[in-house]
Amino acid sequence: MKKIINFRFSFMCLGPVGNYLEVMSWNGVKDLKDMSDGSDKKPTTILLHMGIHKTGSTSLQKTFAAHRAALARDDIVFLGPGQPYSCLYSGFLSDPMTFFWNRISTLSESAIRERDEAELAALNQALIRHRGQTIILSNEYLPMLSPPEMTRLRDFLAAHGEVRAVYYYRELHSWMTSNSQEMAKSTATQPSPFRQALKRVHTLPLRVANVFGPANTTFIKFEDAVKCGICDAFLTSFDLPSLRERGLDEIKANVAISGTAVRALYAYNRDHPAGSATRDRAEVERLKALPGEKYQLGGFDPYDINIYASARQEVQTQLGLSLAAPNTLPVLELPVHIRLRRLAGRVKRYLLAR
Question: Do β-strands 76-78 and 134-138 pair in parallel, antiparallel, or remain unpaired?
Answer without folding.
Answer: parallel
